[in-house]
Amino acid sequence: MADTLLLVLRKVAFSLGEGALEKLGTEMVEAASVLTDFEHSVKQIESEFMIMQAFISQVTAEKVGDKTFDAWLDQVRDVAHDVEDIVDEYAYLTAQATDTGSFFKRKFQQTKSISAWQNISSQISQVENRIQRLSAMRNRYGISTGEMSRSNTCQHSKQLSVSDSAYLTDDTEIVGNASVIGRLTQWILEERHDRSVMSIFGMGGVGKTTTAGSIFKNRQLITAFDCYAWITLSQDYEIEDLLRQIIKQLMDHKLYLASSIEAMNRARLIEQLQGYLTNRKYLIVLDDVWDTDAWLFLNYAFVRNNRGSRVLITTRKKDVAFLADHNCVVELKTLPYTEAWHLFCKKAFRRSEDKRCPENLRPWAEKIVAKCQGLPLAIIAIGSLLSYHEFEEEWKLFYNQLGWQLANNPELNWVVNILSLSLNDLPSYLRSCFLYCSLFPEDCRLKRKMTAELWIAEGLVEERGDGTTMEEVAECYLTELTQRSLLDVIERNGCGRAKTFRMHDLVREVATVIAKKERFACSYDNVGVTQAAHEFRRLWIQKGAQSLRYLGSSKLRSFVLLDTAVPPSWIHDASSRFRLLRVLCLRFASIEQVPSVVTELYNLRYLDLSHTKVKHIPASFRNLINLQVLNLRYSYVEELPLEITLLTNLQHLHVGAIHDVQERLLNCISATKISGNICRLKNLQALQTVSANKDVVSQLGNLTLMRSLFIMKVQQSYIAELCNALTKMPSLSRLLISSLDKDEILNLEMLKPLSNLKLFWLAGKLEGGVLPPIFSKLEKLTQLKLDWSGLKKDPIGSFSYMLNLVNLVLTGAYDGEQLTFRAGWFPKLNLLQLADMEHLNWIEIEDGSMVCLCQLELVGLRNLNEVPKGIRYIRTLYQMFITDMPKEFIAKIQGSDRCIVQHVPNIHIFDSSDFQAVNNFICLPHLARKYGPGATKILEVGDGGSLQQARNM
Q1: With helix as H, strand as E and coil as C, how does 869-909 read?
Q2: C-alpha–C-alpha distance, residues 874 and 563, integer Å
């Protein structure tokens, strides 16, 4: 609950430190005596909040539920927000001063400026008074700010533990996971004499305790052991109490009483447990383990006696799960829909003999089951609750109020408690990031890069030093959230690195409730909040924006508009109130001009105008001195003003758009012109996609932090300087080089190895039709695309040493007749696309080549009439796309050669006129996955099937 405040306090400590006071400058001190008072007040409030920060850091999750404390902490949070307002107002005014040069010498005497600074001073005085009142209020009402007593903590944890197992005492409720139970039973009964440790992990409520309980209650299995114990760990445990509980369950009651266990210290308890287990075969279940610390003692106490003893751990955390022996870890997933539906019907319609859903309730029942996303805990709780409701209107009302029901219905409190346990276990830096994830729309895929950029812009990511970038720290946060079973990885890139994540719907509901309660953020979707948006620091509007009658002003720090139906006038009017924003996202908004207020947002860190109709970026963008991310992809901006190069804090600059989404043309991506001295952009890590010119290429070498560079319209005369610049980018992992046109020949012989390159897209004719030497040094490459290279020799052998290659795309790259894929080549290749190679008439694939290939695309190979016979060897092949291929080839793959591809479950065939079908089936879903559902608006299919960009609509 205190994490929002912690973030603000860190910002206060940073922004109002000695450096900030020095930045105030001598001009201000000379201007008026009020500034001296201001400086003194700032120092006072800084000292007060340093102490306050230390206090808040001691507030534990167990304090949640104390209504008096909650009300008091709400007041503390209000004070913290007021201080943040002061800090940001200060930054705003000083930025204005910087922007106008001699602002304080020429303008300070103006009434408006004096009033602004006096207002800050007045606000500081008010905050100081409020702090004093809060202190007095705490004493007056006896508000305890320390941790709860140990007895209360234990009782609280015990109650939650009981709740966690309450729904799984009845074996008839076990649905699914039969294979997991069977595997665990096999491990437990295995004829091996050494002690083995196994584990089950997964998110809260997924059925870990149910699964372990079904084994523990199996009397036939239990009798194979001399003694056994089931221990549920709390988040706050004492190792001595834990050891006593284990001994008490294992020992005979009389022996326990005679052993004086209660009086023993930790060392004697461990000795006692070791002595008791030495000659016994034991089974011990450690349920709901939260950290690895307890295992340090238990591992020592659970003796290895070569009697076939077993330890089973259940946990939500991956690092705990991996305490188990190798290959003895089971990750429990949510139930598939069929099993989830079966379980729901057993609970919701348990009073009917057939336990079938009545037809009038089925539409709402199906929606509710879908919302539960296979989580047994929620399915059983909600199903049991609805079993008392028979009318369709009641079910409809429950579904529409699901978020409110979770937060307020006592019968669902235990569901929220179990889901909240994971959230309460988070350290403050992770908790805020996790709450932020709840702002994304339901079922939304969270993109690694976008999420990291937003977290950083919001100030949620802490610096760790030692050469670690903020992006790398943010990725560590994402990894930790997945290891805690709070986010699921649903897509990985070619390196196996997590690319997209998903939050379970019900976890999101719980997180959303907490985020609103703490005024951390509000995600608005035309349901519920209509007037209170001004109370939140962050506002994400998914739909129904125009129903919000009040959006607030200085309180708001983040505004993300996902509602594409909003008229430009509403956007311009709304944005005029947000002068202290840090994040502004208008992706897919219906605007043709940048809202005028944007260039006055001096505190802005993140600006997304992608997929809009904005054509012009004004020179006044130079005011955005704190901007870190500027996203203009798929806008109509064709040239950036030279003032962009004044944004020295810029880290990610995304421009350009795709003309041909099938990427069959040489210049399928439009390049944006950039002028000015880009040497100033020393913090730039991503620059894509820009048009090359002599100045840009000559200055690139100064951008040594570059990780992703897409540069188009490259001429041979630029190559020497470009190659030299690339060698000065040690972290470069993504590179696109595209030539000016099909006639431009590129000689890349001088290009030196790029040790960290993962993605390489090279478009244009190569000197002599030969691959440059660098291709023998690209061992780490995972994605390779060559377009219109004019290669004379079969290049496949030159790529074969790229053992990490996952995607290989050759478009018009080879002028020869045959390609050969030998056995053992491309062991990790997942996608192969061969397109528009005019003379290719034979593809040989040996058995043992591309053993992991899932997708094969053959496009526009006009002389390939034979279906490659080696396709039959690729047993992993899941789908094929056959586009614009010869009629003879299509006839064979559908007829005489059907046996070659009969193992491929999905084969999609499009002829040369099926541009619309290709886009609808392949390209648009890809764009929707990458950029969201609104991405499909960037294309339309014109008359005759030709692709046009949205600007021609």
Answers
A1: HHHHHCCCCCEEEEECCCHHHHHHHHCCCHHHCCCCCEEEE
A2: 44
Give dist(CA 885, CA 865) in Å, integer.
8
Q: Are strands 446-447 and 498-502 parallel, antiparallel or unpaired?
A: antiparallel
- Tens digit of pLDDT for each residue in 880-900? 999 989 999 999 999 999 999
User: What are the backbone dihedrals phi and psi of residue 253, each rounded to the nearest 5 degrees, phi first?
Assistant: -60, -45
Higher pLDDT, 445 or 546: 445
Residue whose structure tokens are 């089936």: 921
Separation of first and last alpha carbons in the chain: 49
Cβ neighbours, 10 Å, residue 905: 9
Mean pLDDT to the nearest integer, 188-192: 86
- Of the candidates 826, 867, 816, 814, which has an alpha carbon nearest to the alpha carbon of residue 844? 867
**The 3-state secondary structure of 562-609, one letter per residue:** CCCCCCHHHHHHHHCCCCCCCEEECCCCCCCCCCHHHHHCCCCCEEEC
Close Cβ partners of 154 (under 8 Å, ≥ 6 residues apart): 234, 236
Q: What are the φ/ψ torsions at residue 201 (nearest 5 degrees)?
A: -135, 155
Residue 442 CB partners (closer than 8 Å, separation 6+): 505, 508
For residue 158, which of 56, 335, 251, 288 has the smallest C-alpha distance? 288
Place of tokens 């430009």: 568
Determine how many CB atoms are found less than 10 A away from the CB of residue 771.
Answer: 19
The answer to whether residues 401 and 408 touch, using CB atoms and an 8 Å cutoff, is: no
In contact, 21 and 43? CB cutoff 8 Å: yes
What is the rounded distance in angstroms from the CA atom of residue 440 to the CA atom of residue 419?
A: 19
> Residue 708 pLDDT > 80, yes or no?
yes
Helix or strand holding residue 654 (H, E): strand 652-654
In whole angstroms, give the CA distance from residue 606 to residue 628: 6
| pLDDT of the residue at 61 | 46
Q: Which two tokens stand for residue 41?
A: 């007040």
Written as six digits, the tokens of 17 are: 């430190």
* pLDDT single digits (tens) 838-868: 999 999 999 999 999 999 999 999 999 999 9
Which residue type occupies 462? E
Is 695's pLDDT higher than 60?
Answer: yes
Higher local confidence (pLDDT), 209 or 921: 209
**Averaging pLDDT over each range in 278-287, 502-511, 560-569, which range is the top one?**
278-287
- Asked whether the bond before 689 is cis by omega within 30 degrees of 0, the reply is yes
pLDDT at position 415 is 82
**DSSP code for 642:** G
For residue 457, what are the contacts with CB-CB under 8 A and spacing of at least 6?
A: 582, 583, 605, 606, 628, 629
Write the DSSP assignment of 799-828 as a string of letters. HTT-TT--EEEEES-B-SSEEEE-TT--TT
| Better-predicted residue by pLDDT, 398 or 926 | 398
Confidence at residue 938, expressed as pLDDT on a 0 to 100 scale: 45
Phi, psi of 363 (to 5 degrees): -55, -40
* Contact between residue 477 and residue 446 where contact means Cβ atoms under 8 Å apart: no
For position 571, what pLDDT does the model report?
A: 85
Q: Look at residue 75 and give its three-state secondary structure.
A: helix
Task: Supply the mean pLDDT for the chain.
Answer: 81
One-letter amino acid at 739 equals S
Which region among 296-300, 898-902, 921-925 has the lowest average model confidence (pLDDT)?
A: 921-925
Can you list the alpha helix ranges (DSSP code H) found in 651-800?
A: 694-699, 719-726, 796-799
Contact by Cβ (8 Å): 439, 540: yes
pLDDT tens digit sequence for 424-439: 888 878 888 999 999 9
| Distance in angstroms (rounded) separating the CA atoms of residues 917 and 497 | 32
Phi-psi region of 483 (alpha: psi -120 to 50; beta: other; left: phi over 0): alpha
Q: Which of 689, 687, 658, 692 is nearest to 675 (CA)?
A: 692
Running DSSP on this structure, what letter comes out for residue 445?
Answer: P
**Residue 817 is encoded by which pair of tokens?**
């007749």
pLDDT > 70: percent of the chain: 80
Burial class (CB in 10 A: 0-12, 13-18, 19+), 895: exposed
